[in-house]
Amino acid sequence: MKVSKALTAALAIFSLSVIVACSNTRMVSPNTAYNAVMLLKHSFDQGDYERFQTYFTDAQRNKISKEQFRELSELATAGWGHDTYSVITFENGEKLLINTVKDLEDGYYKIQDIKRVPEEWKELFIR
Predict the structure, then answer these.
(1) Burial code of 42-73, b = ≥16 C-beta within 10 A, e = fewer?
(2) Are 57 and 26 in contact (CB under 8 A)?
(3) How far apart are CA 47 and CA 96, in angstroms?
(4) pLDDT > 70: what percent of the chain?
(5) Residue 95 phi/psi, 5° resolution?
(6) Partner of 36 at 20 to 30 A CA spacing, among 16, 25, 27, 49?
(7) How many angstroms separate the most distant Cα atoms in the chain?
(8) In whole angstroms, what is the distance from residue 99 CA to residue 115 CA?
(9) What is the pTM of this model?
């Protein structure tokens, strides 16, 4: 009989934990680049345009229309990957696009690739 009460109490606590966890839609916050991208992908999966807009800076918010959002959502698949890029901008206007990856052996980030940003693409990387 004691086992039954303990099991019932454990199930009740577990159920309550699941309900609380599932009711919290913001379990992940956009506090890292990866999390921000993951949340953006989730907004595509859910068709949640309003949530999608919250992940942009004030200056960029609402630049993507609902129609564009739908088009982008159609590109999204269940399988996806996240690459990390940085842009180095020199005072002479030249820009380099740097792809970094985490080395699984030592945990450090390493340079995977470097590309010079062509003139016609430089406007994409405005700070």
Answers:
(1) bbbeeebbeebbebeeeeeeeeeeeeebeeeb
(2) no
(3) 34
(4) 79
(5) -135, 145
(6) 16
(7) 79
(8) 9
(9) 0.61
- The percentage of residues in the chain with a pLDDT greater than 90, rounded to a whole number, is 48
Which string of DSSP letters, residue by residue, matches the chain?
Answer: -HHHHHHHHHHHHHHHHHHHHHH-TTSS-S-SHHHHHHHHHHHHHHT-HHHHHTTS-TTTTT-S-HHHHHHHHHH--SS----EEEEEE-TTS-EEEEEEEE-TTT--EEEEEEEEPPGGGGGGG--
Tokens of 101: 């990856």
How is residue 123 written in tokens? 């406007």
Residues 88-127: pLDDT tens digits? 999 999 999 999 988 888 988 899 999 999 999 999 888 7
